[in-house]
Amino acid sequence: MSFSSQGFSPEIAQALTECGYEKLTPVQQQAIPHARRGHDILAHAQTGTGKTAAFSLPIIQQLLDAPKQVGRATTRALILAPTRELVDQIANNIADYTKYVDLKVTAVYGGAKMSSQERKLENGTDVLVATPGRLIEHIELGNLNLANLEFLVFDEADRMLDMGFIGAIRTIMSGIAEHPQTMLFSATSSAQMNALAQDLLRKPKRIIVNEENSTAATVFHVVYPVDEERKLELLSELIGRKNWQQVLVFVNYKETANDVVKELKLDGIKAVLCHGDKAQSSRRRALEEFKSGKARVMVATEVAARGLDIQGLPHVVNYDMPFLAEDYVHRIGRTGRAGQQGHAVSFVSRDEELTLVQVENLIQQRIKRIQLAGYEPKSRDALLTKMHSKPAYKDRQGRKNNPQQEQSSAERRLKMMRAIRNKSKGE
Ligand code: AMP
Q1: Residue 365 Cα to ligand 1 middle (Å)
Q2: Residue 304 C-alpha to ligand 1 middle, in angstroms?
Q3: Mutate which of 6, 12, 19 for ligand 1 pocket (most atoms within 8 A of beta carbon)
Q4: Atom of ligand 1 at shortest distance to CA of 311?
Q5: What residue ranges define each of the domains in the chain, with the CATH number in brackets?
Q6: Which string of b and e fits 383-422 if b means at least 16 CB within 10 Å?
Q7: Taking CB atoms and a 6 Å cutoff, what residues make up the pocket around ligand 1?
Q8: Which of 52, 96, 156, 341 to mutate to test the pocket of ligand 1 (most atoms within 8 A of CB)?
Q9: Tens digit of pLDDT for each residue in 103-139?
Q10: Which atom of ligand 1 is nearest to the CA of 93?
């Protein structure tokens, strides 16, 4: 299905052509016709499926079809997203789609100056993209009034719930008078998500793209079994030997991220960092360097990299397996996007094997193991001794997304690993 058949204005169609969009992706095919007719939407679609265009193009076209002078400190459309990076990304995409029309697009998020955002909001805006926390600050200061909002989108709603934004969402909703056309996009579903959808949406059209918790069919998954202490060398060797040019590496801890970047630099591989301790400006610079190819590797923690769109990314490496199998799906969502091929490479030490099994169960696929000569993991006996004294495994089974629990289990695991390391150093 082509964009020209969807009745978009020639200016929008031209901009989409320049973005390289020829055909609609499955989520766009399903969502755009309903959204154009003004229906609420509940969509289960991962990042990478083209969901940003799926919700923003119908809004843009409807704004153009019914032109209005925007009032002071108001917006006609509001898009909420969980992180600054995602807000930036959505706003940039919309700016690309609207480059030949006269619509004002504004982004607001924490970590940036209030004053410059205030000035942008002052004269009103057509489309506002925001993180919930910063949006509430602006509302409380009287910089923004949502009473006459026409369009409302919740992007990555599951992440917003995970990050504890439920209270913020309810506060925002209390300031909206009429029911705007509302669309809720989420990669996963849960009881809490369904309850929220029931509150927010009116007779929504339901859209499901990909089975829940599945990864794109264009991603090749491989596992390299390797001992924890050999992972640094293995990463450097693979990048060099296979001549990987753009690699996003996921780690579980900021400390590991720092170590990996240091090691890669020593090996002459330009790498940048993206984790929660880094200032917003430095994360953005890292992302720009990585996207533009100035840096070959970006090493990131889960939260910092949430929702990042890095177009055409060929390689994602799980240096550490994630604590939750569901997070494997989120991480891998950065590759194999919009029909392109991607490679998902996981380094699995003996004590991460259980997580690997959970991942395989979740994605319903057995992942190919590649044993690189010289990197064979040590014997299993040591692991068995460790496993029998390991409470974290018990806790990890059957857990749901719960950041609180995730953190405490992660901390426990870190402590345990440190204890094991210290013990083996002392032996
Ligand atoms: P998203 O899921 O919105 O993060 O989009 C993932 C990537 O797919 C982004 O880089 C988009 O620019 C790209 N994209 C979205 N729609 C299309 C399309 N119809 N054709 C080609 N690429 C697209």
Answers
A1: 25
A2: 21
A3: 19
A4: 10
A5: 3-208 (3.40.50.300), 219-379 (3.40.50.300)
A6: beebeeebebeeebeeeebeeeebeebbeebeebbeebee
A7: 20-21, 23-25, 28, 47-53, 309, 311, 337-338
A8: 52
A9: 999 999 998 999 999 999 999 999 999 999 999 999 9
A10: 12
Q: Pick 128 or 340 by higher pLDDT.
A: 128
pLDDT at 389 over 70: no
